[in-house]
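Thread: sanity check for a docking pose with fe (ii) ion

Original post by kr_44:
Hi all, I'm comparing my docking run against an independent structure prediction. Below are the sequence and the ligand SMILES. Could someone generate the full complex and paste the structure tokens? I mainly care about where the ligand ends up relative to the chain.
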Amino acid sequence: MRRQVFRDPALQENFRCTGYNQLPLISAEMIQKIKHEMATMRPTDGFNPVGEATGDVMNRVTYHCSFIDQNKEYKRQVLNMVKGVFQPYVDQFLADFRILNANFYIKQAHRGHFPIHQNWPVLRDMSDTTVTIWCPLQNTTAINGTLHIVPGSHKITPHVEAVTLPPYFANIKDELVDSWLEPLDVPAGDAVIFDDGLIHWTSHNDSDEVRIAIQILCIPRDTTPIFYFHDPENDPERIEIVEADEEFYLNYHITDLLVRQPEWKSLGFEPNNNKLVSSREFHRMIANGERARLGLFA
Ligand SMILES: [Fe+2]
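Reply from moderator J.T.:
Ran it for you. Here is the predicted complex with fe (ii) ion included:
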């Protein structure tokens, strides 16, 4: 698949090499409008979850994420608001993409541990491209939980990360934090638009103020979005492909995704070819990244 992601050739070229672009997107006035609307919303966790970064899937969560909230009406409200504000920018900058899901990611003061990850792939063709728009509503730096990325780490291996499938770099996370992850200084209203395969995380919010960011997953209009379901107990060697459009993310809670739901529409299975890499292998994969991406982008 030779995919054009950004309409602008210079942005497309930078995206191919680094895996992201940072650009000014929404105005200070629009940020105020979004905050006003946010103040009317009523997520179950009150934008302030009580997780302690240990234990089961819910207790690990120390930040608010709309998808993880129990209030489905609230989740729909966020998606509708985000579509209204951001779809024009998606049309302006990206080549025929649409919004699949959207979240507020909110880290209260001195909260917000988040593991290093790749975003879950949502296309069956692992060489095809989806992007995430990450847009903070205040200036963000390494102090208050900005986005950290490993430039050029996109599309260097076809790995399926999922709720029960660890990242391929699970054994070298400390090295990634110490030597590879770079913090991005992102002014309020700027957006980082990155390949969902890029290794990233947002750091702990060590400031005294809340840190609010909007995250938006965008997919090419000509693709069918899917969810990779893996059952480590009963079928560890295979991964099921399940149809998953926007209602999927509105209707299901993250804990629902740990169990095969009978109403899901299966599109078949893929073998579980996931492997964990060593530090040496990772160095080699990054060095060969440009070659690995040859032919994937128009
Ligand atoms: Fe992410």
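The helical segments are 9-18, 28-39, 72-93, 173-180, 246-251, 279-287, 289-293. Hope that helps with the comparison, let us know if your pose agrees.
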